[in-house]
Write a structure and sequence with these properties.
Blueprint lengths: L1 H10 L6 H21 L1 E5 L2 E5 L1 H4 L4 H7 L2 H21 L4 H32 L4 H12 L2 H12 L1 H4 L5 H16 L9 H18 L6 H21 L22 H16 L1 H7 L3 H12 L1 H22 L13 H25 L1 H4 L17 H5 L2
Antiparallel strand pairs: 1-2
Length: about 375
């Protein structure tokens, strides 16, 4: 293990900002833990259906504030994509070659998930599994893919995002919500916010790559301004307090994104910027950096298979143990939350098995030193400014 830590540390370019990788790892882990805590599978009359503790216990809404970390992922994604594109241009790489390489890293692990679950769906269909159960399981697996579709689209738009001020997509989100909720506009208009809402942190990441957002005052302004705006929207404008979708709720902050989740994302981005200094100091330790680097090497594999890991453990519990608190029972009280926490290590073991089986689809063939730290070297400031 010590040898692995030393190799990872020596393979890291001296100018690499390790805090960026730490923020990406934090965002992925936040999504994984959030899903494991607020998503349950419950058996009812021979079928499985999804349930959430947020339905019965709305006071748990602050949990969603901790684990809904998508804005941080898009912030880091915008920063890395702009720097990567600038570096590629400085080497003479065309836009098409650059985009193809980045999308290939997303498409391979997605293809693996789709193939496996296509086979699984066929097996369930032939074995007589009810349509309701199949719909529940496939929805849990496929619903995270919307995030990757949006991320791929924004990656393709990186040259435009590099020049776009974050206030423009924020203004679009504000206008859409005013029409939807204030003027009784059509509900389908909200889907405009799928692109505009996540473009806000992505453009912030682009500004970061160009050398902006460097002062702590900017971080505090985003944190306090975003948190204050979110509080006003939740307390006085009727937006839900939960920053994730809650089954049966009249309004979801996430599906599609609302102004509240975007302003909340601004607060998260501000907090992320303020944490850069402490993270850089912590990641100077080789062991800490090795853990972050290894997680980033398989971030998409972890993201794509975490729901499968939870479902495997839950269905196994249904077949073997029947009623197991926190696993196969309805989330109806604080006791369920405590019991659920006890199941998280088993979910992690199942995810580790999935990671072992499918990580090669993300990592590709071994290429020596670059296998450990794969991102491009930091672009020179001049190249970034002209991206």
């Amino acid at each position: 293990m010590r040898d692995l830590v030393r190799r990872i540390d020596s393979a890291t370019p001296p100018g690499r900002d390790r805090a960026v990788d730490a923020l990406r790892a934090f965002a992925i882990l936040g999504v994984v833990l959030g899903h494991w805590l607020v998503t349950a599978l419950v058996a009812d009359s021979g079928t499985l259906h999804g349930a959430s503790p947020l339905q019965r216990m709305p006071r748990l809404a602050p949990v969603s504030w901790l684990f809904q970390t998508l804005a941080v992922f898009f912030l880091v994604g915008g920063q890395v994509a702009v720097r990567s594109h600038a570096s590629a241009r400085s080497r003479g790489t065309t836009y098409g070659q650059w985009l193809g390489a980045r999308l290939a890293r997303l498409s391979r692990p997605v293809a693996a998930v789709l193939v496996v679950w296509t086979v699984a769906a066929g097996a369930m269909l032939t074995s007589g599994t009810s349509f309701e159960t199949m719909h529940t399981l496939l929805k849990l697996v496929l619903s995270p893919l919307w995030f990757l579709l949006v991320f791929a689209a924004l990656t393709a738009a990186t040259p435009l995002a590099a020049r776009l001020h974050p206030l423009w997509p924020l203004a679009v989100v504000l206008a859409v919500d005013l029409v939807r909720f204030g003027l009784g506009g059509p509900a389908w208009l909200g889907w405009t916010n799928v692109a505009a809402g996540w473009l806000v942190p992505y453009c912030l990441g682009a500004a970061w790559a160009r050398g902006g957002l460097q002062s702590r005052a900017t971080g505090w302004a985003l944190l306090l301004g975003g948190a204050g705006a979110t509080a006003v929207l939740v307390l006085f404008a009727g937006y839900p307090a939960a920053m994730v979708g809650v089954p049966g709720a009249a309004i979801s902050n996430l599906d599609p994104p609302t102004l509240a989740v975007v302003t909340f994302g601004l607060a998260q981005c501000g907090a992320a910027l303020l944490l850069l200094g402490p993270l850089r100091r912590a990641l100077a330790r080789p062991a800490t950096w090795a853990a972050v680097a290894l997680l980033n090497l398989s971030a998409m594999t972890v993201f794509l298979w975490h729901q499968t890991a939870m479902m495997v453990v839950t269905t196994t519990g249904l077949l073997v143990g029947g009623t197991l608190p926190g696993l196969t029972t309805a989330p109806d009280g604080p006791g369920w939350i405590l019991a659920r926490l006890a199941w998280l290590p088993l979910f992690a073991v199942a995810l580790l098995i999935c990671w072992t089986a499918f990580r090669t689809y993300e990592q590709g063939r071994s290429r020596g030193r670059t296998r450990i730290v794969r991102e491009v070297r930091p672009a020179r400031p001049a190249a970034v400014r002209h991206a």
